[in-house]
Amino acid sequence: MAHPAAQSPTMTAAPGAGLPPWARYGIIFGFVSAASIALWAPIGVSGTYPRMIGAILGELTPDYAAANPYLVRMGSVLKPETFLLIGLLIGGFIASRFGRARLVARRLEMVHPGEKTDFARYRDAFLGGFLIIVGARIAGGCTSGHIISGMTQLSVSAFIFAAGVFASGIATAKLLQKGGK
Amino acid sequence: MDRMTALFVGVAMGALIQRVQASNPGMIARNLRLENLSVIKFMATTIAVGAMLVYVMSLVMPMHFDVKPTYVVGVLVGGLVFGVGFALSGYCPGTCVVGAGEGRKDAVFAFVGGVVGALAFTLAFTAVIAPLNALADFGKITLADMLGLPAVAVALALGVVFLAVVKWLPTNPGRPALGEES
């Protein structure tokens, strides 16, 4: 006779398996974000981008890099935050290739109705990527640092940033949908 | 040690973002068009659980809090610029890295756009950004400071409100009758 734990499907199901994915993964991410603050620091991503620029300019024009107050303030690209980004790359790779619910992105998917060619999707991704880093660095953080970590810590800035992001984000997404049809 | 912690947090965060499809730019566009709210509900759930945990934990152990300063004009302008880029690309600075790990080519373009954006920002910082961010700077303030209440009480209240709202909000407002999926 088999061990009871081996034959009962309810025993092998993960806790919270009855919840929708957004709730299950949100609860797990809440624990990860809290563990990060307990062990190291709040999660944050966008500051690593100017640190990469600092590393590049430090090689090309060391005098300029040493004199730019922003690059000096942001510090070295060897800070732990850079390793968080490496982790994101690895996590995305692993999750897309293993497990039952794998969702590998095989084809380029268009996002807005106006994107009729691959070039249009790459152009929108590039321009949007430019704007999210400029915006995040003006505000001092992005979705992870300002919204997730900021609201978790009850920071007032997080609520102002989120209000700005969703106001212009919803307006832009709706305009791009109308304009492309 | 901190680098290892950051790496492991990144792997977990990347896997969760991939599974909830936040690294899918089409999913981000659907959330911003308010057709599907799953990523927004995911974020709100994360914040609710995280806020309650960190402030309860802070009663018994030291925590590495790092509250960002509230310079109202810069934070709002930055948020408005960010929102346009978020909708246009369908990515944020972290999800484009996750998307690149998944093999999404447009995610790599978003990442490179971000690197160029960081260069533009760095060059403009002294002349434009530093004066902007000196306006209406209230420093590192929290809701608890503003309300004059204990942080743990505010965190628990915020957590309850966020969880109630995500439970009440439909996941697919565009298609209410077909049952709630993802």
Using only C-alpha atoms, the radius of gyration of chain B works out to: 19 Å
Low-confidence segments of chain A, ≥5 residues, pLDDT <50?
A: 4-12
Largest interface: A-B, 118 and 128 residues
Number of domains of chain A: 2
Overall mean pLDDT of chain B: 93
Assembly type: heterodimer
Q: Order of SSEs of chain B, N→C?
A: HHHHHHHH
Q: How large is the count of helical segments of chain A?
A: 10
Structural class of chain A: mainly alpha
How helix-rich are the residues of chain A, as a percent range?
55-70%
| Largest β sheet strand count, sense and barrel closure of chain B | none
Q: Treating each run of at least 4 consecutive H or I residues as one helix, how many helices of chain B?
A: 8
Descriptive report:
The complex is a heterodimer of chains A (181) and B (182). Chain A has 181 residues and is mainly α. Chain A has 2 domains: 40-109, no CATH class; 113-181. Chain A is built from 10 helices and no strands. The N and C termini of chain A lie far apart (63 Å). Helix content of chain B is 68%, strand content 0%. The radius of gyration of chain B is 19 Å and the shape is globular. The longest helix of chain B is centred in the middle third of the chain and has 28 residues, at 105-132. Chain B is built from 8 helices and no strands. Chain B has helices spanning 2-19, 25-32, 38-57, 72-89, 95-102, 105-132, 143-147, 151-168. By secondary structure, chain B is mainly alpha-helical. The interface between A and B is large, with 118 and 128 residues.
